[in-house]
Amino acid sequence: MRDGIEPFRIEVPEAVLEDLRERLTRTRFPDQLDGAGWTYGTELSYLRELVDYWRTQYDWRPHEALLNGFPHFETGIDGRRVRFLHVRSPHADAFPLVLTHGWPGSIFEFYKILGPLTDPTQHGGSVRDAFHVVCPAIPGYGFSEPPRAPGWDVRQMAEVNATLMARLGYTRYGAQGGDWGAIISTQNALVDREHCVGIHLNMVVAFPPTDGSDPMAGLDDVEKAALGDLAHFQKEETGYQQIQGTKPQTLGYGLNDSPAGLAAWIVEKFRTWSDCDGDVETRFTKDELLTNVMIYWVTQSITSSTRLYYETMRSGRFGPADERVETPTGCALFPKELYRAPRAWAERAFNVQHWTRMPRGGHFAALEEPALLTEDVRAFFRTVRG
């Protein structure tokens, strides 16, 4: 397994796209209860509309070209090929930053913020805000090869990030992410304390105190409302976690075989987890939704991506880190995020140095609110750049 850094280019064979069109044409849709809407899951009429658009109007090639417009590379780490974007800033003193996506996202989530982060003077920022950005596809996601042995949880994914940053020559860097990216960035701060000097999270996961003190003490109305939202999410919206965390292989047969099924599984999360008031296309275009789905489809990575739930649930690292993170931490709380821990809880788990309540936005912050996320990342890392 070569450990050098080599160029990589996304080139999906035309035969894969032809097969996809044929499968979409043959989609066998289920029935739906009258008036059910999205209550039971992805709504039938919307999925029919999306599949028809996918089959007749969506074109992968321009989106492939958009992704290839960023510099892609690959390297061998722990026996697998890891593919990643490495977008260097034109400003020599830029600060290295590793961006990690989550599920059901991909490196495509970050396409709106790569320019503003790496070349801020062309996007309303200052040269002091420049970053060299490294954006890996998590092993088993998108274009990176999947692990072949059990046990690859978020700690090992963080070790991949640390190895990658060292191999690129970055001895001092920051980490940022939401969803799995937030949990992996947290682990980055633990496994690479000497080099990872700051983390920024747009999903803050922290648990109530275990010392017998009142977990609600000092919480304001916004924090109490966030805990109410979390309770609803845990009751009504975590079935996917249980399935992916217990039987990912069984799930994978259907999702890897049916593009309509894959889209239904993923797009429902984009609707439910975003700040869209029930209309997913107020936050994402059909092309954006389908490009993200396409990355899972053309790489056949949906099954390997869901195994991260299985491995991490069994390692006990699904929630906050098992030790306090002393690395300076910035937190951006978007109002429709799934987990929005109270600050008092977060401060028990992290060395919180920056805390922002956002006016709008949800789980997919880089796609939903790229300007808000970019500015908050800039603001926090000004304090740790050195």
Give a brief description.
The chain has 15 helices and 9 strands.
Helix-strand layout with pairing:
Blueprint lengths: L5 E2 L6 H12 L18 H13 L3 H9 L3 E6 L2 E8 L7 E6 L13 H5 L12 E6 L17 H14 L5 E5 L2 H12 L4 E6 L19 H16 L2 H8 L1 H10 L1 H15 L12 H14 L2 H14 L9 E9 L9 H7 E8 L7 H4 L1 H12 L5
Parallel strand pairs: 4-5, 4-6, 6-7, 7-8, 8-9
Antiparallel strand pairs: 1-2, 2-3, 3-5
Helix pairs in contact: 1-2, 5-6, 8-12, 9-10, 9-12, 10-11
CATH topology: Rossmann fold
Number of helices: 15
CATH architecture: 3-Layer(aba) Sandwich
Count of DSSP E strands? 9
**CATH homologous superfamily designation:** Alpha/Beta hydrolase fold, catalytic domain
CATH class: Alpha Beta
Structural class assignment: alpha/beta
Strand portion: 5-15%
Low-confidence runs (pLDDT<50, min 5 residues)? none
Number of domains: 1
Arrangement of strands in the largest sheet: 1-2-3-5-4-6-7-8-9
The end-to-end distance, rounded to whole angstroms, is: 36 Å
Q: How many strands, what sense, and barrel or not for the largest sheet?
A: 9 strands, mixed
Q: Percent range for helical residues?
A: 40-55%
Overall pLDDT score: 96
Shape: globular
| Cα-atom radius of gyration | 20 Å
* H/E topology pattern: EHHHEEEHEHEHEHHHHHHEHEHH
